[in-house]
Amino acid sequence: MGLQQQLAEYFDFEELGTDLRTEVVAGLSTFLTMSYIVFVNPSILVGIEGEKPGIIIDGVPYAQTIQMVAVVTLIAAAVATLIMALYAKRPFGQAPGLGLNAFFAFTVVGALGVPWQTALAAVVVEGLIFILLTAVGAREYVINVFPTPVKLAVGTGIGLFLTIIGLDAMRIVVDDPATLVTLGPVASDPVAIVSIVGLFVTFGLYARGVTGSVVIGILFTALLGGVVKVAGLAPEAALLGNLSAQATYDISPLAGAFVTGLQDVDALAFSLVVFTFFFVDFFDTAGTLVGVSQVAGFLDEEGDLPDIDKPLMADAVGTTVGGMLGTSTVTTYIESAAGVEEGGRSGMTALVVGILFLVSLAFVPLAAAVPLYASHLALVVIGIVMLRNVVEIAWDDLTVAIPAGMTILIMPFTYSIAYGIAAGIVTYPLVKVAAGRRDETRPGHWALAAAFVVYFVVRTSGILTSAV
User: Fold this and answer.
1) What residues contact 44, with CB distance under 8 A and at least 6 apart?
2) What is the pLDDT of residues 372-385, one digit of tens each?
3) CB–CB of 14/28 below 8 Å?
4) Would you give the DSSP letter of residue 76?
5) DSSP run (H or E) holding 168
6) pTM
7) CA 415 – CA 28 distance, rounded (Å)
């Protein structure tokens, strides 16, 4: 029996109405649409002393740390996607998720002051909890505990959060003592000018449905910045990435760092971080799986994905492995829809994606060569796409609109996904009771709301002077 026939039998090509060529093309399409994470994840997670919070390894240069995180990103994405391919047999790609990497760097490490090693420990713990709940089949219970308006609003809130981070890195939006934020010097700042050109080129490619438009946009913007600098049109050093960085594959300073992060943690702050990682990971993955499965025709008559626990388990294992190696939470990518639209229906699509992530390890130095502003344009593009989730919210029902609105608005205004989720959860049962609809709440809603009220009191009253 030839390899092609073995693959056809293992992945049920005949039953799913597909073939090897279709699956390979679909896998390539999915990889190209989500491969931007190889540049973006390191640029978000890695910190710059005195400028940007994130992973900072003593004695290791920024460019080398970027490459370490790029290697870990690729390995985590490959492991999770290969599990999705060989165990769940679904055409879904996985990688460290946008939003949670920003929460890791800007909120957990930055605002809360939690060491990055402890943040990685929270990712590992969240992954283990996810594995346990998936193994015992507690998916329905978890879904019922969280208010629906908050679940529907999280994606939009994260979209706004990502957008403001991206615009800030591109110098299109800057801080202002009078108005908090304002428009940057977009007609005189070379970085802002190049960023705007690159952003609109990317928007155009994305709108035309060009496969890999975000990656093309990132590389185009980085190249344009290099041309401007080399041509002497602007002296701005930030226009260039690190073009001389040597390939680095030693990830030992990152791998296993979560173990030291478990020492001397503050239980309250650590619990909030774990909770937020779990909440966003679980519902982002579940929502993405259902959304992409709808396109593929995988849903049953009740609108559910049969055997959803298998792809959820792939996500959970990928998150745990990623945290152990040194990256933030792994999730299923909505970009998987690109491969599904190309005809991908089996785990063979995911197998191709996973293999391509491994092959990409040869191009790790590119991660350091892409400047920060170029990689962050992906945050603006994806952030805007995520805003479309808002249409699912029943805005004509104030008991839904208020907690959903609080979830969405608090995230960018406090620079924290966690605070947005907490605000929505606290608000939900209160407005339900005020509207005379207490019967629509559950004990779990009240328990979560009470827990977050306690957290906000402790966190903002000065009782908790340090998160570590």
Assistant:
1) 54, 98, 101, 102, 104, 105, 165, 376, 379
2) 899 999 999 998 98
3) no
4) H
5) helix 148-169
6) 0.88
7) 35
